[in-house]
Amino acid sequence: MKIFVCVKHVPDTAATIKIAGDAGFEDGEIKFVVNPYDEFGVEEAVSLVEKDGGEVVIVTVGKAAAAATIRGAMAMGAHRAILVKTDGQFLDSALTAKALKAAMEQDGLGDMVFTGKGSVDTESFQTQYRLAKSLGLPVANEISALSIDGGKAVAEREIGGGDKQVVEMGLPCVIGATKGLNEPRYPKFPDIMKAKKKEIKEVALGDLGIDENSGSIAIETLETVPERSGAKMIEGSVDDQVTELVRILKEDEKVL
Amino acid sequence: MAKTGILIETENGAVKDTTLGVMTAAAGQEIVALVMDANPADLKDKLAEYGAATIVAVKAGAGDIEASPDLAAECLAAAVGECGLTALLGTASATGRDLFARLAAILDAPMVSDCVSVDLAAKTAKKSHFSGKTFATLKVNADLFLATVRPNAIEAVAAPAGGEIVEFTADVADPGLVTVKEVKRGESGKMDLTEAPVIITGGRAIKAAENYKMLEDCAARLGAAVGASRAAVDAGYAPHSMQVGQTGKTVSPKLYIACGVSGAVQHFAGMKTAKVIVAINEDKDAPIFAKCDYGIVGDIFDVVPKLTEKL
Ligand SMILES: Cc1cc2nc3c(=O)[nH]c(=O)nc-3n(C[C@H](O)[C@H](O)[C@H](O)COP(=O)(O)OP(=O)(O)OC[C@H]3O[C@@H](n4cnc5c(N)ncnc54)[C@H](O)[C@@H]3O)c2cc1C
Ligand SMILES: Nc1ncnc2c1ncn2[C@@H]1O[C@H](COP(=O)(O)O)[C@@H](O)[C@H]1O
């Protein structure tokens, strides 16, 4: 099996995001990681290949600095990687999907594609659908359980309220992974060393015939969400506190 | 006037409250309500009250839209063309997220997910980037504007309109790529966290799975859903489907009551856009008090039952 995993290079969710200019952020100093949901995809692909043989190819669209993040995914067991290089910080999902497709086609299409359920930086939740549509493949997102058997994939999707939907599709297909699918492995030192020698093929976005500035969504402004400045503490006996809270919620805030 | 479609979501044959807020997001436009999963006659009064000029019952000419998400998206895509829509908005619910992403791929049109506000005239939408740390205002440069709106982010306001019902049968083929085999129901009657107007969450302090009963009793009075922190999920007190935060659900209720939650950034990533946040914690120095609206220092096992009693 040849499995592609789409891995996005994103700021660590614990990092402080400092706004730069109107619509950007300072990306020089903060830590970047594999998009957390994509890790579930990497783990699933690597364990499938460990079982049945084949190779796992990481595909990333991002700035040159993404190479370090890709090494992290390769330390988890992926064999090689393709980095489609961009200059800007933001590329809309339609162009990203185009770039992912072009990179895969150039490399030779695989038997399966994994993505995360969404990226934690732009929270767009759609790249995998666009990629699947353009490849003519079935797609299912937010997958927390998967079994592959007889050329078919059966997957479970979380649909809220504790309910799950079971879907079936033929292979190849695109699977958007989420928590529950597996426990991503923690790479050991020898794996990290081995990953340093693995191949990352770099291609410029323009060389795939895609104009970075042709997107149909642009960030106009990026602003920090204001933090609350601290709670109004409600004092008194438990009875007094609760009475006052209920009054505030009903009369002042009108949320009850 | 530009025509904006709203994908109507229903529950037990009635319009979901979260859908009404999405209709309000299109105030000032001619609203076309698209109904796929219920009898439009049952919804007419409500949809007209909240601004629907027309209500379109969208049906598939052949095939089962319940079993084929791609067929549902194809029908919706056909309806967008048929009705001459310049925008289509839906709810960022489990259904809406999946359907709109499929639709955007079919139409090859830009789509903004999980907006907290939209400006249809300016073709901009505001949404969270970086797990709730920043808001991005995105400008859409296309003839068709697709967006899903975060549940409860926009307060519903009545704006009566005609509500004329028409039928549209989409003559599209089922792509037959993905088949829904079954829906496994969790514990019956649980409200979906991401759509709940009020949420009461129990953290590690809840100490045992059975103690969530205390929160459920309170939730029943509040019309709330019950959430959990990751520490509570990891300790086995609650299933992952109840987890709020960066690796759980992102929620934006009108009221969020955190009981015995310390206030980690990863927890806040999932709930900081709630309108009002209340924390109950026995430690007066708990970090959560620095970033919520109202605080009560106390033992949750005293305060929560008292709250249930007073509601
Ligand atoms: C990559 C990553 C992702 C994460 N994702 C999430 C996520 O999605 N969601 C999430 O919640 N966390 C997440 N976390 C974990 C997060 O950092 C915290 O560890 C977690 O939120 C703590 O849960 P807690 O507040 O319930 O527990 P604690 O931090 O242990 O806090 C318990 C609180 O309860 C109070 N308390 C105890 N007993 C009582 C009582 N009887 N009455 C009143 N108060 C009492 C204590 O004073 C304390 O403040 C993530 C962490 C990482 C590294
Ligand atoms: N720039 C990118 N490079 C590689 N994969 C990506 C990129 N952007 C998105 N993806 C994949 O698509 C999924 C959904 O992303 P998004 O639509 O941005 O939420 C992510 O979890 C990734 O697997």
Question: What can you see in these coordinates?
Answer:
The complex is a heterodimer of chains A (256) and B (311). Chain A is an alpha/beta fold and 256 residues long. Chain A has helices at 36-52, 66-75, 93-107, 127-135, 189-196, 238-252; strands at 2-6, 9-11, 19-20, 24-25, 32-34, 55-62, 80-85, 112-116, 139-149, 152-158, 164-170, 174-177, 200-204, 217-224, 232-233. The radius of gyration of chain A is 22 Å and the shape is globular. Chain B has eight helices and 17 strands. Chain B has helices spanning 17-25, 40-49, 69-82, 94-107, 212-222, 230-234, 265-268, 300-310, and strands spanning 3-8, 10-11, 14-15, 30-35, 52-60, 87-91, 111-119, 124-129, 134-140, 145-149, 164-170, 178-184, 198-202, 225-228, 255-259, 276-281, 294-297. The radius of gyration of chain B is 21 Å and the shape is elongated. Chains A and B meet through helix 4, strand 9, strand 10, strand 11 and strand 14 of A and helix 4, strand 7, strand 8, strand 9 and strand 12 of B. Strand 11 (164-170) of chain A pairs antiparallel with strand 12 (178-184) of chain B, so a sheet runs across the interface. Flavin-adenine dinucleotide binds next to helix 6, helix 7 and helix 8 of chain B.
